[in-house]
Amino acid sequence: MMPKDTNAHGTIFGGVILSFIDQAGAVEAKRHGADFLVTVAMREVVFHEPVYVGDLVSFYTRLVRIGKTSITVSVEVFSQTREGVGNRVRVTEAEVTYVNLDRNRRPTPVSK
User: How many CB atoms lie within 10 A of CB 40?
Assistant: First the structure.
């Protein structure tokens, strides 16, 4: 993470992490047949640990459910400090639901 993403306390803004969660989840959703996505829900985001400038942050995704027009993905976030191996901590996790849209921006079935 970079200095531009920090708040007044020297940690990374939660909103920056949320943005990356949304992007990581969308990549996973596209792997499962979604095309043009919008985010409709992000559930239970609790920050367990802070993220600092210079930390390596990793986002791990897993498909939870494919509905008719929606896809739900779980995203887990871990950070690793500059000191390296063995310092990996779980930062947060979220379940993100996306709706697949057609070119008229109407919900359309996910091609599974």
Answer: 12
Number of H helices, E strands in the chain: 1, 4
In order of their start, the domains of the chain are: 3-101 (3.10.129.10)
**pLDDT tens digits, the chain, 112 residues: what are they?**
778 889 888 899 999 999 999 999 999 999 998 889 999 999 989 999 999 888 899 999 999 999 999 999 999 999 997 766 668 899 999 999 999 999 999 999 998 7
Rounded to two decimals, what is the model's pTM? 0.90
